[in-house]
Write a structure and sequence with these properties.
With 478 residues, the chain is α/β, with parallel strands linked by helices. The chain has 3 domains: 94 residues, Rossmann fold, CATH 3.40.50; 217 residues, Mur-like, catalytic domain (UDP-N-acetylmuramoyl-L-alanine:D-glutamate ligase, 3-Layer(aba) Sandwich), CATH 3.40.1190; 147 residues, Alpha-Beta Complex (Protein-Tyrosine Phosphatase, Chain A), CATH 3.90.190. The chain contains 18 helices and 20 strands. The strands form 3 sheets. It has a 9-stranded mixed beta sheet with strand order 7-8-6-9-10-11-12-13-14. A 6-stranded mixed beta sheet has the order 15-16-20-17-18-19, sandwiched between helices. Helix 15 crosses helix 16. The longest helix is centred in the middle third of the chain and has 16 residues. The radius of gyration is 23 Å and the shape is globular. The relative contact order is 0.08.
C-alpha cells in the first residue's frame, strides 16, 4: 500500500462534484500534509469546502489560481479528471520528478478486494450496474463506485470491511490515464466499445483508445479481459498484447477459437474451449431487446463478467427478468394517458441519441429535445437520423457549441424548409413550450425524448445535474 503519512500531497482541483472532496478527506485520514489548489475561488467552492467538514482545518488552500512552486515542492500531485495531461503545471511537476497520480491509482493501490472494472464509450454505466445486479443473486453486499456512481472511489476504499466483498467500478478514460503502475489490477476488466468521444481532450481516436487500454495494462495471466468482438477498436486493443485471458461478446456467432458469449437465433450462447451452450433464452433476451438493441450488447457484457466472477448461468438467466432501469439512461420518468417522458441526459455523444431515436421512434409521435456542449464529435449520422425520422416541428434544441454543429449538418441536408430551428437558451423554456403545444399539436400516444448527445458544461455541472433539472421541470409542467 502506498504510504501517504507525512508526505506533502497537492490535490489539483477540488471541484464541485465530490471526487476532489473525497480524495482530500481520504488523504487527511491517512496522515498526508495536504494542499488543495483550484482555479475556482473560495466562494465558488463554498459547498465543496463545507463538505470537507473537520478535514478542512488540516488542509492548506490555494484558490483562484495555481502556483508553480506548489508543483515543485509537493511530493505527490493528485490530478483531477478535468485537468488535461498537457497542463503547464503538470509539466512543472514532471520536470521536478514529482509523482503524478489520480484517485483511481490510489484505489487500486489500496483495495485488495476482487474488482470488476468497466470502461467504454457507451453502455459502461448500464453494464456496471447490471453486473452488480447479477452478483447480488449470490452476495447482497456488492459495492458499486466510480464514474457515475454517487459513491467516489476513495469513499468506498475505507468502507470495505471484508476483502471478500466484490466491487464493481466504472472507470472513465480520465481515471485510466494514470492507472498503469498501480499495485493491483481488476480481476475482470470490461471494455464495452469505443466510439468517437472526448476528442476535445484527446488528439485523436488512438490517443483516446490508449487511455482506455489502461484498464488492462496491469493485469496478469490469471485475470480476465472482456472485449466487444463487433467493435472495430478491439483489434487495436489486441495489438497491445493484453496478458489476461480474453473473452469476447458478439451479436454474431463467435469462431470456435474465441471464448465468450454470442447471439444465435435470438438466444445467448456461452462458448469456452470450442464448446458452446445456450445460457439465456430467446424470451429473456427479448425483454432486454425491447430496451434497444444496444442493451443486448450491455446484457452480454454484464452476464459474461458475472459468470466469470462465479455466478451460474441459471442464476444469471433468472435475474435477467428483473434488470434495473438505469438513472438518466433512456429512463422513463413519466407515463400517463398516452404520454411518456424519457430522460436520457447521460447521452453525451451523438451515437447515443441515434440509439434512443431508433428505440422510441414508432411508438406514436416522437418529440426530441437535444443539444449541448461541443466535444469535437461527428454529428453527420445524427443529422441523417433526425432527417429520416422527425419533422422539424418535433425537434427542440438546447443552445450550445454542439447544437450549432448539429444544426449546421441539418442545414446541409436542407432539413429546415421555411421554418428555422427551435433553439432555446434554457431547458425549462423547452419543457414549458412543449407543454403549451401538447393539447393543440401533438396527438397521443406521444413520447418526449430528452437525449442531448453532447456534454453539459455550458449550462450544468454535469450530465447528472442536467438530468435532475429536467426531472424538476417535468414535475413542474407535466
Amino acid at each position: 500500500m502506498m504510504n501517504f503519512k507525512g508526505k506533502k500531497v497537492l490535490v489539483m482541483g477540488l471541484g464541485i462534484l465530490g471526487g476532489g472532496v473525497a480524495t482530500a478527506k481520504w488523504l487527511v485520514r491517512h496522515g498526508a500534509r495536504v494542499t488543495v489548489t483550484d482555479v475556482r475561488t473560495k466562494s465558488e467552492l463554498a459547498d465543496s469546502i463545507r463538505s470537507l467538514g473537520s478535514s478542512a482545518r488540516k488542509i492548506k488552500f490555494v484558490l483562484g489560481e495555481h502556483r508553480k512552486d506548489d508543483f515543485e515542492r509537493n511530493d505527490v500531485i493528485i490530478v483531477n479528471p478535468a485537468v488535461r495531461r498537457e497542463n503547464e503545471y503538470l509539466a512543472v511537476a514532471k520536470k521536478h520528478k514529482r509523482l503524478l497520480i489520480n484517485d483511481a491509482r490510489i484505489f487500486f493501490d489500496v483495495v485488495e478486494n476482487p474488482v470488476i472494472a468497466v470502461t467504454g464509450t457507451r453502455g459502461k454505466t448500464t453494464t456496471t450496474n447490471w453486473i452488480a445486479h447479477f452478483l447480488r443473486t449470490r452476495n447482497k453486499s456488492v459495492a458499486v463506485a466510480g464514474n457515475s456512481s454517487n459513491l467516489a472511489l476513495l469513499d468506498l476504499a475505507d468502507r470495505l470491511k471484508s476483502k471478500k466483498m466484490p466491487v464493481v467500478v466504472e472507470l472513465s478514460s480520465w481515471h485510466l490515464e494514470r492507472l498503469p503502475g498501480s499495485k493491483y489490477a481488476p480481476e475482470i476488466a470490461v471494455i464495452t466499445n469505443l466510439y468517437s468521444d472526448h476528442l476535445n481532450r484527446y488528439k485523436g481516436m488512438k490517443s483516446y483508445a490508449r487511455a482506455k487500454a489502461g484498464i488492462f495494462k496491469g493485469q496478469k495471466r490469471d485475470q480476465r479481459l472482456i472485449l466487444n468482438d463487433d467493435n472495430r477498436w478491439t483489434g487495436f486493443f489486441l495489438k497491445l498484447r493484453p496478458k489476461a485471458k480474453i473473452y469476447f461478446f458478439s451479436l454474431k456467432h463467435l469462431p470456435k477459437s474465441k471464448n465468450g458469449i454470442f447471439l444465435k437465433k435470438g438466444s445467448l450462447f456461452f462458448q469456452e474451449n470450442g464448446r458452446s451452450e445456450e445460457v439465456i433464452s430467446e424470451s429473456a433476451v427479448l425483454l432486454t431487446r425491447k430496451r434497444g438493441e444496444h442493451n443486448v450488447m450491455n446484457l452480454m457484457a454484464a452476464a459474461l463478467a458475472a459468470h466469470l466472477a462465479g455466478i451460474s448461468w441459471f442464476e444469471i438467466a433468472a435475474a435477467v427478468r428483473s434488470l434495473p432501469e438505469i438513472k438518466y439512461r433512456e429512463e422513463t420518468i413519466l407515463e400517463k394517458e398516452g404520454l411518456r417522458v424519457i430522460n436520457d441526459s447521460a447521452a453525451t455523444s451523438p451515437d447515443a441519441v441515434v440509439a434512443a431515436i431508433r428505440r422510441f421512434h414508432g411508438d406514436g409521435r416522437l418529440i426530441l429535445m437535444t443539444g449541448g456542449t461541443d466535444k469535437n464529435l461527428d454529428f453527420k449520422p445524427l443529422a441523417r437520423e433526425i432527417q429520416n425520422t422527425l419533422v422539424p416541428e418535433n425537434v427542440f434544441f438546447l443552445s450550445g457549441g454542439a447544437t450549432k454543429r448539429l444544426i449546421a449538418e441539418l442545414d446541409r441536408l436542407k432539413y429546415f424548409k421555411k421554418e428555422r430551428p427551435q433553439t432555446f437558451e434554457d431547458l425549462e423554456l423547452i419543457v414549458e413550450k412543449i407543454k403549451a403545444l401538447l393539447p393543440k399539436f401533438y396527438a397521443l400516444p406521444c413520447t418526449i425524448l430528452f437525449s442531448p448527445g453532447a456534454a453539459s458544461f455550458e449550462k450544468f455541472k454535469n450530465e447528472f445535474d442536467r438530468g435532475e433539472k429536467f426531472n424538476e421541470y417535468i414535475r413542474k409542467y407535466l
